[in-house]
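hey so u asked for the seq, here:
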Amino acid sequence: RQRTGVGCKRGAPRRCAHDSTQPQEGPAIASNPNPLELTAGPLRLALRADLGACIAGLWHGDLPVLRSTEAAELTSSRLSACYPLAPYSNRLGFRRFRWLGRDHTTQPNFDDNPHSVHGVAWQRPWQVVEQTTSRAVLAYDHTADAHWPFAFALRQVVELTPESLTLSLHITNHADVAQPVGLGWHPYFPKRSRSRLHIELTDRWESDASGLPTRKLPQSGIDADIAHLEFDHCFEGWRGEAKIRDEKLRLGLRSSLPYLVVFTPETKPYYCVEPVSHVPNAVHMSDPAAHGLRDLA
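ran it, structure tokens below
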């Protein structure tokens, strides 16, 4: 079980832009848009179970807290506010890995990327198993296929209060052997004037030209405006808290997960602060467990 949450305070309203490009994803799924809405005080959350159990949008009044789209208008989890990452996060190198003496492959699922990215759960339809005005539980049962060779079950609990959003993710191995498991979330925050990050951490993973981590270097925390950052990195030594603010909002992000991916694309109207349980491509490292990957019985 892994858990993360965001708390917020706000100023005056302002809307945010979002990506209008339809990305290519795989495998294709039949969409059955039955959006869910949760409310608590000034917070409103829209969910799309059919699009990878993603959060379509989170608003404080009419101000987007995350990159937000009305649920009925969302066409892809990749354009959403946040989606769960399972059974691994970030890149799985060159769509192949060896586990318990056997070779396995995965499939393309992220444009022309040479790696598989973010697991399978974000591209599959989930089921709503519980719902109240401020809480929902969604479930996904995976049967072994070409995208992931082991069966598993997921439950995501989404809980809203007047001041916070809390997400919990639970995974159960349904295969007849142990499988490698990692979890995480991929939230998108809108860039606004004076968007700024403050995160205490100790190390940064540098990557090769294909995006796979190669070496760990010291990193004396992050405390800067987003406009001055050029990150697409995984970080270690994170204490589970991040402070995010701009001219409209102050957010506190807290998570039980030990790693953090920060992505600050210069040309996009968003940035990402992603709690994850392992280093990208940990399954290919000499000691996957030492880099966060779980050997789940």
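Residues 11-24 have pLDDT under 50 and may be disordered. The first strand starts at residue 2 and ends at 10.
lmk if thats what u needed
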